[in-house]
Specification:
By secondary structure, this protein is of the alpha/beta class. Helix content is 41%, strand content 16%. It has a single domain, classed as UDP-N-acetylmuramoyl-L-alanine:D-glutamate ligase (3-Layer(aba) Sandwich). It is globular and about 45 Å long.
């Protein structure tokens, strides 16, 4: 099935006149203290796409993130405290260490996990039960996490989703979104200018931001992937990852009508 707005636009979160920030959900981004730009891109995208609150939790560099992140984002040091209305946790952009693993394994919320890069391989090996997750690998990360799968990209993504019990977003010029229940969508709405460092971090943040607003994870993955491609198409040549966030409001406005 081809990914297009008709599949999910009616499910796109719309703020209500009497709503408040907690109703729009709380996203937690587990920071990379080395590749800090990946954290900033992911958190910024989650914030821009509509999450009511975004908190960045850093093991060692909380003060750095307080200095460089927008003023409306919150920063926690170390293990942090439990967060009100927490609906999704993003881990993996920029790195995945023992500290990140501990943060996930000690999470007592019902938050959905969005996992990128090395966090994907950990999920496949660890696979905590009774937890919803969305995995966002590119082809190299997918091959490391699922080295024994054969077939087309679509077949492998569907098999990986069923084996890992998670939604798989296999990124590329044609991105496959696969669910454990056998649903599969192919996204061709993209741009060659997305082949830049950091654009995957933006996509992971976009998915996280839609999930915290209550969008069903598979729909959120499909919607974010299409919007990611649309933002890149609108910007065109010269695109860098941070440009995507600036284009998102216009994409949202077009979809919301």
């Amino acid at each position: 099935m081809k990914n297009e707005p008709g599949l999910w636009v009616d499910k796109l979160p719309r703020p209500t006149p009497d709503g408040h920030k907690y109703q729009r959900g709380h996203a937690l981004v587990l920071a990379s203290d080395e590749l800090t730009g990946a954290t900033r891109l992911a958190a910024g995208a989650s914030n821009r796409i509509g999450a009511g609150l975004v908190t960045v939790r850093s093991e060692h560099k909380g003060d750095l993130f307080r200095a460089v992140l927008p003023a409306d984002m919150m920063v926690q040091d170390g293990d942090g405290a439990s967060l009100k209305s927490l609906r999704a946790i993003l881990a993996g952009p920029g790195g995945f260490t023992l500290w990140h693993k501990q943060q996930l394994l000690t999470d007592d919320s019902e938050a959905i996990w969005v996992l990128d890069a090395e966090a994907i391989k950990w999920w496949v090996g660890q696979r905590p039960m009774s937890r919803e997750a969305i995995l966002t690998p590119h082809d190299g990360e997918f091959s490391k996490a699922f080295p024994d799968l054969l077939g087309t990209r679509t077949e492998r993504a569907l098999e990986a989703a069923m084996a890992s019990e998670a939604i798989v977003v296999l990124k590329g010029p044609e991105t496959v979104i696969a669910a454990p229940d056998g649903r599969g969508v192919l996204n061709t709405h993209s741009s060659p200018y997305l082949a830049k460092a950091g654009t995957g971090d933006v996509l992971a943040g976009m998915i996280t931001g839609l999930v915290v607003q209550g969008m069903e994870p598979f729909d959120a993955a499909c919607c974010a992937t299409w919007m990611h491609g649309e933002a890149a198409r609108r910007f065109g040549p010269g695109l860098i990852a941070s440009d995507l966030e600036a284009v998102l409001p216009g994409v949202l406005a077009s979809l919301l009508g």
